[in-house]
Here is the input.
Amino acid sequence: MTSPAAEFDPFSKPHLLGISDLSAFDIENLLDRANAWAERNALPDNKHAILRGRTQINLFFESSTRTQSSFEIAGKRLGADVMNMSVASSSVKKGETLLDTAVTLNAMRPDLLVVRHSGSGAVELLARKVANCAVVNAGDGSHEHPTQALLDALTIRRRKGRIQGLKVAICGDIAHSRVARSNILSLAALGAQVNVVAPSTLMPTAIDRMGVNVFRNMDEGVEGCDVIMMLRLQRERMSGAFVPSSREFFHYYGLDSRRLALAKPDALVMHPGPMNRGVEIDSVVADGTQSVIRDQVEMGVAVRMAVLEALADNLHGGDNVKAAGA
Ligand code: NCD
Here is the structure.
């Protein structure tokens, strides 16, 4: 089976580090490619040779279930040799390790490097240090998670037929969420109106500069929305207590059937996972008819195939040794 890439404009970037680097055209290009893969993934024959001979390393300094496995499946479906390197973040000194890691990786000559790290900006640093290799940000600290935003956009676009003009509420721990940041950037670029809903302790200062509407009251924030995107409390990024208790958080900021009824009747319920049921979302809603949480996981594979393929198209085959001092 040939690559669907032939149908699309080339993707002009050497890496995918964040949505902030992309134009609306770049985002649409990746979504169109991903949509083509989503169609093909529904067919029985899912193995392709597009990345045959390419080596993909998944380097995860933070734990992950769906993102890592989704990148692994995506690479394997495209025929790449995929290797998973999981590094316990607690046992490494960040700066030193990243540079050491870059030296090690250069010796292994990967073509595609998928990186998750707890430090915002760490993935970009690695991209600058690793020779002739395409780097994908699979989540850096509270900064960006571009493939999550792309899979969310694809899920919405396939369900609603468009993104332009939709009203999307992103609710919960906005302050620590790279998912929120990447989604705000991509949804704004694609013409959606974004409401962010959180208590003051979980709302970044100056968030309104990102062009969003800010709500402290959840009922008001979700009213009339086409999409409600819930976020997990990112306790691993908090020092101290940002909410009085999980029970109280659910009372004021949890998505239950009553709050969902304030949105449009056909509103979509989304969550990037992992979900904390009873903390930010009620099970009845998470498993209900308006939930597209499983679609998000499915679209994750298609989006990652599109990204890996688009970046591999830009790789110069063979020589991946960067000039000294670069
Ligand atoms: C998100 C992440 O890791 O940023 N999850 C994911 O990628 N599926 C959100 C989260 O951890 O809550």
Observations:
- The pocket of N-carbamoyl-L-aspartate is lined by residues 66-67, 139, 145, 148, 178-179, 232, 234, 272-273 (CB under 6 Å).
- The two ends are 38 Å apart (CA to CA).
- The CA atoms of residues 224 and 263 lie 4 Å apart.
- Strands lie at 55-60, 81-86, 112-117, 134-140, 167-171, 193-197, 213-215, 227-230, 268-270.
